[in-house]
Amino acid sequence: MKLASLKQGRDGRLVVVSKDLAWYADATHIAPTLQAALDAWPETRPQLEKLAEDLDHEAIPRERFHERDADSPLPRAYQWADGSAYVNHVELVRRARGAELPESFWTDPLMYQGGSDGFLAARDPIPLADESWGCDMEAEIVVVTTDVAQGVTPERALDHIALIGLTNDVSLRNLIPAELGKGFGFVQSKPASAMSPVFVTPDELGDAWTGGKLHHALKVDYNGKPFGRAEAGEEMTFDMGVLVAHLAKTRSLGAGTIIGSGTVSNRDPDNSPGRPVADGGKGYSCIAEQRMVETIAHGEPKTEFMKVGDSVRIWMDGDDGKPIFGTIEQDVVPLETSAMGGA
Amino acid sequence: MKLASLKQGRDGRLVVVSKDLAWYADATHIAPTLQAALDAWPETRPQLEKLAEDLDHEAIPRERFHERDADSPLPRAYQWADGSAYVNHVELVRRARGAELPESFWTDPLMYQGGSDGFLAARDPIPLADESWGCDMEAEIVVVTTDVAQGVTPERALDHIALIGLTNDVSLRNLIPAELGKGFGFVQSKPASAMSPVFVTPDELGDAWTGGKLHHALKVDYNGKPFGRAEAGEEMTFDMGVLVAHLAKTRSLGAGTIIGSGTVSNRDPDNSPGRPVADGGKGYSCIAEQRMVETIAHGEPKTEFMKVGDSVRIWMDGDDGKPIFGTIEQDVVPLETSAMGGA
């Protein structure tokens, strides 16, 4: 089943979307919003699944689905916590900062609590007030949980994953070192993330979803050119069950909690940092990694962080070669333009 | 105006509470929940104020208000970010860890993004799965904002403070050093915070609310004895406007964002760390400070962190000597008891 929230008010309007993302059916008679559906998931899930089945059988009234009309599936959420499951990314980014990777990072997940009071829709521009902040994309997998009891095991945590999607976890790289130095996590260096147009239930992914990992390539184009083709199911040190359990060690989690995988990242077969797509490699899911690899090769980074006018596309194709979650497609714009667009 | 949410479902039922906290009137015809009221604050605020006026004039049906029936005013929120405005606290806690205080901490606020998917009600027990985690209270002031545009100034930010209240920001002290070392902030060391039974509008505080500071003593009793009497308006390095502006530097804030002051903390007049209340001082708003002062005096801490059976009370008296926000009153219980109590 695929779910989306059409833009309407602060929380959107819940719809069920066809497998090919061409059609939708209104679902507000079951739950007005996705959060309301998740609040009563044992009751709403079977009703929504029946609706999705009817939609795919063309048995009910349907409307054309346009990804540009979709808000973030949860336009705001009660929790957003982002892990760093691909330790290759962490190692590269730290090397770029000249910092060593502690051995414990291979066994104890990094995770930060992020702002969840407002996500960007998949086609919303990225507002950037100051280019010197070093704006970067981070392409990631996210899961949305039902209620989770404190102390859940990683294995049992997988049963609490209701939905899966993609995010662009926008990061302001040049603000990160100072915030890391304070130890209190990211407040200013992580503005609003963008979410894929649709989130899907695990069964929708078939065999590609196993052991808390999603076995497809996460595709990133930057300014119209292939930039990242990393395999999300490979070199994921911590699966999604481990990340959910990490967050739930000392507290329960409310329904609608969104947990991110961290930037998807692969090494090259020879164990070196991945090569650019243009050089036959799998590329990168953020600019910071490419800059690190450039620094290793040339002594300094060549690729600049995102500036006004740059654009990023993030998506994941299924076995049929079509995007499973729709496409995140964002341009960087000055802050004022964005504010006017949203008024 | 004083607002509360009576326990009902996930988000409570909005009520207006009389100034003396003795009576309430249902406000669900104006907005079903406090979040809904904040989402449309320009429209709902005058209606709620009219209702509060009628309640205080006994002009409408009213019911007895019992603080034990109140949930957190926002039982869950889209954002909770906690500052450290009382740098004396930060300095003491760091000295307790043997860490220096960087000079920048006096000009650049510390702030972490906290979990907001579920707060404890003022009378809910604190569930503690493992006493070795070092459970501590942190008594703080909180403000709730309306929508805030990115880049707001500290002065203008004050106009976006809709409500003021108290919190017990429960902390697991022995999990903090490892999380600080990772730099990603607090995920496991900050379980659910408890909120005061009522939040109030700034005008309700009269002259005690000036310049983004609340000029009353924040009172803390621990196991029935006076523990903290720190003046919340004194030695607050960053006022609430500065904290709101800090969070809004790179992103807008959604209505219902809760921002905390950090642990309220005063030095002694001779500039030494404050003395215990029993010794004529203003005491402490958390156990960690008392342990630090003990370490200075005796070479090691004497007071243990909270264990099952310990209890804490947090409140603030107004000019009339009565609690403004009601009283946070919590016992520490084993995790299982708490889970059963909530079932």
TrEMBL record, chains A, B:
Residue ranges of the region described as Disordered: 259-282
Gene Ontology MF annotations: hydrolase activity
Pfam families: FAA_hydro_N_2, FAA_hydrolase
Alphabetically ordered keywords of this record: Hydrolase
InterPro entries: FAA_hydro_N, Fumarylacetoacetase-like_C
Domain called Fumarylacetoacetase-like C-terminal: residue spans: 80-333
Domain annotation Fumarylacetoacetase N-terminal: ranges: 1-76
Signal peptide feature range: none
Domain of life: Bacteria
PANTHER family, sorted: BLL6422 PROTEIN, FUMARYLACETOACETATE HYDROLASE
Record-given protein name: Fumarylacetoacetate hydrolase family protein
Organism listed in the record: Pacificimonas pallii
